[in-house]
Specification:
- The longest helix has 31 residues.
- This protein is mainly alpha-helical and 306 residues long.
- The chain has a domain of 214 residues.
- A hairpin with a 2-residue loop joins β1 and β2.
């Protein structure tokens, strides 16, 4: 039972981190009908900016963290204004391909900056264990994992309030439902879409900090970790915020259980799935769920009348 609870806690923390990227992906998709493949790169870029401020510039981490998140949001806004605003009215497929190009551009720049050795958020953040842990009934709960889980819950709660009660939140909901009708009602759709990219980039940056700053360190392979938010939203449904959270938790908990139980299962069946199976498992789950529900667990089925 202790092992199960340990794996569950780690899986929940991973799922919460993935959900921050996944929510941004869903926001962009609902507002523009485009799946942005640049979000994982923005997550790692955000972590890189925080690291550069805290380590290279010597700024206090507690200042570098919110400042780095804000700068990443501005980067998302610049991307939308510079590259994507000019693609309004173009086929969705073309815009999606453009986001892949943006992803490659960001990754190329970051790979050259990161180099071969991992980068962290400062001396005190060189290892996840330095954050300390809390032991409850034999279950070791890392403070970083707990912080990631609580941060994701807080962000989801704040976004729910924002969408329901704020002027721009209501405008974003209207835009995601029907852009032409929103324009007819006087809503500045361009400004709303820019705000969506700003929020999505900030969420990606916060997720990138938890993924790279503590769990694994910032490396050239960090993009692969952030990329797992894509199968999460496909599992949950491309247009569902609830689905983004549920899909992320499914992915995270799957990885947590595999990390703790894979060796014992392989010993019993006499077959090895390989050391990289935990990275492959999210895509296997996505494959089987899509066979049963092509629109995802919470996605809306589109019906076209002819």
């Amino acid at each position: 039972m202790t092992l199960f609870l340990q794996a569950t806690m780690q899986g929940l923390a991973l799922g919460a981190v993935y959900s921050l990227v996944a929510i941004g992906l869903v926001l962009i998709y609902k507002a523009t009908d485009v799946l942005s493949f640049a979000q994982p790169a923005l997550a790692v870029a955000g972590a890189g900016i925080i690291s550069a401020l805290a380590v290279d510039r010597g700024i206090s981490f507690w200042i570098a963290l919110p400042l780095g998140i804000f700068i990443t949001g501005v980067l998302g806004l610049i991307i939308e204004r510079t590259f994507l605003r000019a693609m309004v009215g173009e086929p969705v497929f073309s815009v999606a391909i453009l986001t892949i190009g943006i992803d490659i551009l960001i990754r190329t720049v970051l790979d050259n900056w990161i180099g071969l050795n991992p980068r962290y958020m400062g001396d005190s953040f060189s290892q996840m264990g330095n954050f300390g842990s809390l032991n409850i009934g034999g279950v070791a709960i890392q403070f970083l994992e707990l912080t990631a889980l609580l941060s994701a819950i807080a962000v989801i709660a704040l976004l729910s309030v924002f969408f329901k009660f704020s002027k721009y939140g209501l405008a974003m909901r209207a835009t995601s439902f029907d852009q032409e009708a929103s324009l007819a009602q006087g809503i500045n759709v361009g400004r709303v879409i820019a705000l969506v990219w700003f929020i999505a980039a900030m969420l990606a940056s916060l997720s990138g900090f938890f993924i790279t700053g503590g769990f694994n360190g910032l490396t050239q392979a960090s993009f692969v970790t952030a990329l797992r938010a894509l199968p999460a939203i496909v599992i949950g449904g491309l247009d569902s915020l609830v689905g983004a959270v549920v899909g992320s938790l499914i992915i995270g908990m799957t990885q947590g259980y595999i990390a703790y139980y894979q060796l014992s299962i392989e010993a019993k069946i006499g077959f090895s799935f390989g050391t990289g199976f935990s990275s492959l498992a999210p895509y296997v789950i996505m494959f089987f769920i899509l066979i049963v529900k092509p629109d995802g667990l919470f996605g809306k089925e589109e019906v076209e009348r002819v």
